[in-house]
Each structure stands twice: as structure tokens, then as C-alpha cells.
Model the fold of this input.
Amino acid sequence: MDKKVLVLTEIRDGNLRNVSLEALSAAKRVAGNGEIVAAVFGISGDEVVATLSRHGAQKVYIVANEKLQQYTTDGYFQAFCQVIKEVNPDVIFLGHTAVGKDLAPRVAARLGLGLISDITDLSLEGEDIIFTRPIYAGKAFQKKKIVDGKMFATIRPNNIALEETSASSTAEVISFSVEITDIRTTIKEVVRKTSGGVDLSEAKIIVSGGRGVKSAEGFTILKELADVLGGAIGASRGACDAGYCDYSMQIGQTGKVVTPDLYIACGISGAIQHLAGMSNSKIIVAINKDPEASIFNVADYGIVGDLFEVLPKLTEKFKNLVIT
Ligand SMILES: Cc1cc2nc3c(=O)[nH]c(=O)nc-3n(C[C@H](O)[C@H](O)[C@H](O)COP(=O)(O)OP(=O)(O)OC[C@H]3O[C@@H](n4cnc5c(N)ncnc54)[C@H](O)[C@@H]3O)c2cc1C
Done:
């Protein structure tokens, strides 16, 4: 059966988040000859519509209510429920981001929908969508389907390959107004822990440091490599606990879960709680002076050596390469 798929997109700093475009690619895999509808909250703009069209949206609902300019649970919850009622989709996707994690369960509970969170893959089997999601901190994967009602899932960033359609396709734009009553929180200030740079959860390349980096200043050489590669900086809890970096950079079971194309672990031993956050990275490079370190068990490439000697050499080499 052809399906109508609704994707709630997310905007950050005026730009669509990559995971929203990945959600549109997921929609294309399952819509058949159905319809792909994107919803944008808080802003409008030709550029946003053009990008969504290029990635497969056939209709774009612009919900330009001023109460949606910044995320609040109450505001987005009310708006999203109204959009779902209006569009009446068979399938609903949004990113497994801070927003998705907060919003999706609340909406699912209110509308009585099943929800499969944090999916890394999906496929069609007859009428059913089979969703793949990690369990046991990424040690195994389970396949699930929703047997009744709308199919609702959040999508882990960096897992669904982006697909663009023809540059000439333009989505139909619908201005949709929503009633937003009580918002019980007020945003007074947004404090960014990671100033500038690449967002960790969506980064394609992450250079990550552990207790082996030895100090906050030690992270400078990781940053130099990350800058050359266009990557983000991550850290183990060991490094965060030691005060070398902020907890917003922590990767692992109690930190962020990331799946970049390339993860470079520097001076990280490879504790199970750290692996829970990064072991599904596509390529893992480990730099550690201990040849027995467990990180080498999950690494595709291992360098046994002192990170303070190895990293500057890598940075120098990469500087001379054109990164495409
Ligand atoms: C409930 C719970 C939740 C947790 N959640 C997380 C989590 O989310 N994320 C997380 O990371 N941890 C988490 N931990 C902590 C985890 O168990 C480890 O303690 C932590 O990951 C260790 O950090 P590390 O690898 O940086 O430090 P260490 O284990 O001390 O390893 C440092 C490594 O650096 C190497 N090294 C030292 N000097 C150099 C050098 N000059 N060059 C190269 N290598 C060098 C050493 O050989 C060593 O392998 C959690 C623990 C618990 C109990």
C-alpha cells in the first residue's frame, strides 16, 4: 500500500538539521506512490522549502507561529498534534534528537500511537515497515514493526543515507495555523556549551579524547586535527570527570550516542560504557600507548603510540590532503 508520510523537521540556527533530511530519505523508502509531507515549525523561507523539496517533500506545512520560534515541550506538542490530525499520515518520522526524544513519547501517548525510537534502519516487507534499532547499548539490533495504527518512529542521526531527488521539484507550500494555549516554560537564554564547531550528534568525523589527553590544554591538539578534518570534538567520561572538558562532550552510555563515518579515539581505554556511545561508528581509529587497551578490540585501525607524538603528525599529513 502507498503511504502518506509526515516528517517533522528541525531547524537549528536557521538551518535544517541533517537528521530531518535523513528522515525524508527514510520516508522515500517507504512511501511508494504515496505522499511525503514535511512540517516546519517557527520559521518560513524559500530556502528551507527548496531544500525540503530537493530531498523528497511533496508538501510542506509551514507553521510560522511566533510561539514556536524556540522549542518548548508544550508549544511543539500542541502544534505537532494539530498537524498530525490535519495531515492524517500513515507514518510519522522525526529525528532522535533532544527535541525528538522529548516530543515523540508525549505525542504517542496523547494520540494513542505505538512508537519505535532510535531507529538506525528500515525496510518494507509487504505492507509492513520493519524498523531496526539497537539494544543492549548497541551490542545487538532488534527488528520491530507496529501492528496497529500509525507507524511512528524517531531516527538516529547519521544512519539513513541522504538521497536527493531532482533539483527542479518544488513542494506545495501550505501555511497552517495552530492554536497554542498554555506554555508553562519561558526560555530566558540559550547557552551553548559547544561554541561554534560541528554538532557532535550529527558530525561525520569525531576526534575524541580520554584521560590519556592529561589536561584541558591537551585537547588543543585534538582540536587542531578536528579542524583540519571538519570534525567535532568528543570525550570520554574519564576526561570529563577529570575536568578536561565539558560534560556536553561526553560520549557513551550516560553521554551522547554517536555514529560518525570516522571516530578517532585518543587516549581512551575503551570501557564498555564508552563503547556504548560510539561502537556503531563506521570506521574507528584508536590511538593508545597501551597495546592491550580494549579500544583496539573495536577499532578498525589502531596506532600504538603516544597521542602527543601521533596527532600532530596526522594533522600535518591531513593538512596536505584535499578532503572531499
Ligand atoms: C554507570 C556508568 C556510566 C558510565 N558512562 C560513561 C560514558 O557515558 N562514557 C564514558 O566514556 N565512560 C563512562 N563511564 C566510565 C567508564 O567506565 C570509564 O571509567 C571511562 O570511560 C574511562 O575513561 P578513559 O578511557 O578516558 O580513561 P582511562 O580508562 O583511564 O584510559 C586512559 C587511556 O589513555 C591511554 N593513554 C594514557 N596516556 C596516553 C598517551 N600519552 N598516548 C596515548 N594513550 C595514552 C591509557 O593507556 C589508557 O588506555 C561510566 C561508568 C559507569 C559506572
Remarks:
- The chain is about 30% helix and 25% strand.
- The mean pLDDT is 93.
